[in-house]
Amino acid sequence: MSDNGKPKFAMYWAASCGGCEIAVLNIGAKILDVDSTFDVVFWPVAMDAKYKDVEAMPDGFITLCLFNGAIRNDENEHMAHLLRAKSKILVAFGSCANEGCVPALANLSNLKDVFAAAYQTPSTDNPGNVVPQPSWMAPEGEIHIPTLSPMVRTLDQVVPVDYYMPGCPPESPQIAAVIDVVIKALKGEAPLPPPKSVIGAGESTVCDECPRVRDVKKIRKFVRIQDIKPDPGICLLEQGVLCSGLATRSGCSALCPKAGAVCVGCYGPAAGVVDYGARLMTAVASVIDSNDPQEIEHILDGIPDPAGSFYRFNLAGSLLHGSKAAWK
Amino acid sequence: MPEAFEPVIIGFTCNWCSYRAADLAGTARIKYPPNIRLIRLMCSGRLDPTFVLKALAGGADGVMISGCHPGECHYLEQNYKAMRRFQLMQRTLAQLGVEPQRVQLVWASAAEGARLAKEIARVVEEVRALGPLNWPNGHNPTSVAPVTAAPVTTSPEVHA
User: Fold this and answer.
1) What's the CA gap between A242 and A226, in Å, rounded?
2) A215-228: per-residue pLDDT in tens?
3) Do B95 and A291 touch (CB under 8 A)?
4) ipTM for the complex?
5) Which residues of B are less than 8 Å from A108 in CB distance?
6) Residue B137 is part of which domain span?
7) Is A69 in the same domain as A131?
């Protein structure tokens, strides 16, 4: 590999959907700054490079590594350790790397059920019940695929992380701003943010950025947004729709509530929130307008999947990490 | 012979009723099992579900939340808030595989030392019957051993 003296840039995807890469490409003309400032040495979605190329790099060779995706299998784990060793600045980029995101909802079930959901449902056309095996003897030799870990983990549950950049995906203007900060720091014009801090997001909640009017929250019935015609100016939660804005970190400028959709919580816990789902439970339960246990149960029936609603993005990063079924 | 299982229960009490009930049990020399570790809050309405999850993730086998009887809250109706949070939390915990007996809500007034002692004993016995929870240490998730064998036992040949 050639060394042209430029700082080195890498981006890697572990258990993720690819949306984070799209968000990076969405920064528009700023991508030219990335190209002129950095030497892109490893970025599977954008260029051809092999793992052995990374393994051949000296430790600390990569200046900035954006790592997106959760740790789902032994390949993800290997790459997390490898890129940690090779990178000066390792950023947990996007919700999966930060808190597990949607892939971590698999932590509600054990691996056997996860496999069954993929290969053995009534609608699956798999008469031979073929399931992937970690190794297979092909005529050309033995071949391997990665082995799943029992639980989906966040990046910092596997290796130390320097910065956290939340979002599913992180908003492109926030990415552009973070890249500006890093470029300035490399030129010695500005300091880097404090180590271990959350970058590219605010400290407060989505509610703080939401223009909808908040008045008195008293909920007697939870509804799904498609079942009502929501008032465009009033807080969605006050209209009985489960909106996660009140526990979710600001930084997206409340895109979803502005567009008439609920906040699903993709920016993760706001500053100071220990357990995201617990914070939501605290807030949601306190605005239910009833003191009668039976009536409360009836109102709670309007939240058919509490764990999925409160931990949609945060299960791996939560205090319990998953369900008992997943680790039994 | 292995030691008998002694459950650890974290008990959250409110300053005005249930903590005083526990105090009264003490002065009246009413015995209750030492398995419960009582923590005083100003009000059961202060109980953030985070406390319960942290207790379970940190090694507790069960949690008992207690407060003033409905309608008797020192802060008017914060114990109703505790009740609503408890009901919602129970639904979430059920999905996470935590048995309902492990997290219980008990009302006790400042005069009910005997009742609180009885309830503590009941909760301890119910959790004892369930056995240890042993939630993997929340801050060390790597303690969960990775799967090395084939994750699904049925091989393609079996059904072919």
Assistant:
1) 12
2) 988 999 999 999 99
3) no
4) 0.92
5) 95-96
6) 9-159
7) no
